[in-house]
């Protein structure tokens, strides 16, 4: 596992130590920054060793990452009581439970903004833990499968522990584009004018004096759970591809589309796979994560270039990519997340952003993060970075789930991550609502008619019509009733009204007040 | 009024006509784009003539402007039934009533995005109405007191009616910086790296063939209503200036601060005036509107440069500025609103954004637009453009109003325009909450303790504590109760609980669950 040739700056060879020794470098109440973005390029052993130490003694840290970690690291840290605060994103079931109980504080951040926030007022980064492929002669470091916030951590942290992962071939050199906007907070422009432009260096600058320890590992990233497309995700993908085809016909898009961003998950995967079958070509991605579908699209020849901050793929795809780097090397680039998700670049490139909603409402507000308005799932991630500034902001979700007891289209969302101003298109397995140019009362009709599960359509129309009549307004609502579906689900196990309640409900009107 | 020397391209002199004649150029169902941004540089006569014509015959248009119009134009159009749809902003009482009744459709847009939206899917702009100072030899046009969306309208409209306003001196030439990003939607970067950088030309390019009519006017902009600072606004300003002073002490800001954006209204004016008395110097603004306080700050010597899209000032200040253009000319620039409010530039420059909230909640979500969740006031304007991408996103409002019967801090806002991810600092007359780096449960305590009106503090703490206990979660809420303050206000005329309800309410706990 130890491959000393990966340390190309000789005097650093003395810094090699075990993960347990590295864990001793942490102190209680430290602020720790670590690599790792959607399970890719995360610390494999040092944070786990920190967790083991925290089981023995009082050792709580604030942990800031790129995004989520793999290999159960967040669970291990949580169970050891090692986390006082966590940001900006997580997907771990154990950590999530503790966050929702209030045991661990979680700040849910736009992924582009974490680098902004650690420049100052979150407090100084005491220690960074960064997975790297190797260390260059000049002390700079070559990342592995993600860049995340590592450039910022390397710059700002007082001390740095490096994990050299020998499972990653040094051939990875060159796929990273390391650009750090200078002179924060008053900066120059970032000169990316198309997804394939490289604007930085190939390794992350790091003052060798700050390296406190070097630990060797040889552990691949935790694989992504890739679910095969099912009937619903295929339906969503078909609606969306049909929409793109119509946009091409209308002359608003070409058959190259525009640079694509796709959130994580099986819907996004299904959509990208669907694009592989459509009459599109020469596609590009400007996204935060490259998933299996990205490489499938490369293999079909439909995708020309992809830019992101990490590669998060299944075990099969991992081998396909990292054993054939020469095949993909010139087609992709990994950037820091404050560049992959930069507001100005997203608008400049005219991105088509496709992200997943937990629920959305009749006016097109989207909840991406909270169950029942209170319990967080993962976090907002990059969805806000992309949705706000994209050319087309698209949110997808199934219309209903759990034997249709839960409608994902509601009178009012219980938590707002993306409001009506930032949502252009909504898609469910039942249809697509194109909201561009529509006022709220128009949006409500299009959304209900096109996207609702049929079991809920009538009651949604009833709510809208009664709100128009009773309360009026730009955005008609009956506040006392706005969350009644959530309450009913909690009390009865379904959002569907009981037979009795149903009999009482006024019948839906075909005419509407808009 | 007619000053034919203002038409420097000879063959256009034949296009001069009366406003009534120009009004005949409109057809039913047209999409009309017009100049005007926060009452500055709007159409003074043609849209009014359109309203007069619409009283006589079926003539409904979609009207897209920069932002709000002055001189009761929106009211006249509304009363004449001339508006089918309006975007992206308005402040007119009559129009607002009709929007809230559902008679006029209103799309409330981020002001930076209207230019994006009219590139295609809102439909072609049939007619533009643009107020100008004069027409250049090459047919290009020199705007008056705002730029707004006029550059986009001049480019995209099929036909253009110009209002030459002789109340504006041709000396205004040079204060505009006209830059239109090319190749939409895939664009180059906008090379603005500080508020005082000029990147464009001084007049708006316009194909003379598109000019359908030229109308002369000599009417100054409707003056801004400037309220003198009162006890509450002075208190808010003092809290904020104290905060800035502490940021300077902490080394996170210099005494030059960072480029300032300030929303419209008396709080923003009070804050800017307060900065004139503080130990700050060499200040800059990168905002959307320049108000009286901007020019007062120029006069104190504290402000070095200001960039915006319009000048909207009182009658006194109007005369001070436009009769002394040589004094202010080199200190300011007016840009198109898709540049003044561009996401990438706002982040690049590290803006300090100060905007007004209608209400905010214990987790820091902000409602800028809707009363009781349903009735729109004005619109989101540029607040979202700035809040999302600024270095410091600050929202201000009074803690309570209407004899304290209304608390502006609530368990949950009835409409979300800016969510917790986009709000760094909240300020009321009672204090300031610095939310940077805080998780929702931490935010709740800081907000309640620092910003609540004392009459409501105990009940807010009670809600928070009961929500933590009953429902838990990252963002504890009791959905059935979340809007109970709004409901109580509607039913009883006050958000304060009745004596009986008060006796029932559990006492506030000092300890909290975070």
From TrEMBL, chains A, B:
Positions of the Acetyl-CoA hydrolase/transferase C-terminal domain: 320-463
Alphabetical UniProt keywords: Transferase
Active-site residues annotated for this sequence: 288 (5-glutamyl coenzyme a thioester intermediate)
Keyword Calcium: no
InterPro entries: AcetylCoA_hyd_C, AcetylCoA_hyd_C_sf, ActCoA_hydro, ActCoA_hydro_N, NagB/RpiA_transferase-like, Succinate_CoA_transferase
Highest taxon listed in the record's lineage: Bacteria
Gene Ontology annotations of biological process type: acetate metabolic process; acetyl-CoA metabolic process
A GO molecular function held by the record: acetate CoA-transferase activity
Binding site for CoA: 263-267, 358, 378, 382, 402
Stretches assigned to the Acetyl-CoA hydrolase/transferase N-terminal domain: 10-215
Similarity comment: family membership: Belongs to the acetyl-CoA hydrolase/transferase family.
Protein name per UniProt: Succinate CoA transferase
Organism (species): Filimonas effusa
């Amino acid at each position: 596992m130890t491959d000393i040739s990966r340390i190309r700056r000789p005097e650093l060879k003395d810094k090699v130590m075990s993960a347990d020794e590295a864990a001793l470098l942490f102190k209680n109440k430290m602020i720790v920054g670590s690599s790792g973005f959607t399970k890719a390029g995360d610390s494999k052993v040092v944070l786990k060793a920190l967790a083991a130490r925290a089981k023995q003694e009082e050792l709580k840290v604030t942990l800031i990452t790129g995004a989520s970690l793999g290999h159960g690291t967040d669970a291990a840290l949580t169970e050891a009581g090692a986390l006082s605060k966590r940001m900006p994103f997580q997907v771990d079931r154990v950590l999530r439970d503790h966050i929702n109980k209030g045991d661990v504080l979680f700040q849910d951040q736009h992924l582009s903004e974490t680098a902004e926030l650690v420049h100052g007022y979150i407090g100084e980064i005491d220690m960074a833990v960064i997975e790297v492929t190797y260390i260059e002669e000049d002390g700079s470091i070559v990342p592995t499968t993600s860049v995340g916030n590592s450039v910022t951590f390397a710059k700002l942290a007082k001390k740095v522990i490096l994990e050299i992962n020998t499972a990653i071939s040094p051939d990875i050199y060159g796929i990273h584009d390391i650009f750090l906007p200078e002179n924060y907070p008053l900066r120059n422009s970032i000169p990316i004018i198309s997804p394939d432009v490289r604007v930085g260096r190939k390794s992350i600058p790091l003052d060798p004096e700050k390296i406190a320890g070097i630990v060797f590992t040889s552990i691949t990233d935790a694989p992504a759970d890739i679910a095969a497309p099912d009937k619903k995700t295929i339906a969503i993908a078909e609606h969306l591809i049909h929409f793109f085809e119509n946009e091409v016909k209308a002359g608003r898009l070409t058959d190259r589309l525009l640079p694509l961003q796709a959130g994580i998950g099986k819907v996004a995967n299904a959509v990208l796979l669907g694009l592989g079958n459509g009459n599109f070509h020469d596609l590009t991605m400007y996204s935060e994560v490259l998933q299996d579908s990205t490489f499938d699209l490369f293999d079909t020849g439909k995708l020309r270039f992809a830019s992101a901050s990490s590669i998060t793929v299944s075990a099969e795809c991992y081998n396909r990519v990292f054993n054939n780097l020469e095949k993909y090397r010139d087609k992709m680039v990994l950037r820091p997340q404050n560049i992959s998700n930069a507001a100005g670049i997203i608008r400049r490139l005219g991105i088509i952003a496709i992200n997943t909603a937990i629920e959305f409402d009749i006016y097109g507000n989207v909840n991406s993060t909270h169950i029942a308005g209170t319990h967080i799932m993962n976090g907002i991630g990059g969805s806000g970075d992309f949705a706000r500034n994209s050319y087309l902001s698209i949110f997808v979700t199934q219309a209903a789930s759990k034997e249709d007891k839960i409608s994902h289209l509601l009178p009012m969302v219980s938590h707002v991550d993306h409001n009506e101003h930032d949502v252009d298109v909504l898609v469910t397995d039942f249809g697509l609502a194109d909201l561009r140019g529509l006022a709220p009362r128009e949006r409500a009709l299009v959304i209900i008619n096109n996207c609702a599960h049929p079991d809920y359509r009538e009651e949604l129309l009833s709510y809208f019509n009664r709100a128009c009549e009773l309360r009026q307004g730009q955005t008609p609502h009956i506040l006392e009733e706005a969350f009644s579906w959530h309450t009913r689900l909690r009390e009865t196990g379904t959002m569907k009204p009981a037979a009795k309640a149903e009999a009482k409900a006024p019948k839906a009107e075909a005419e509407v007040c808009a």
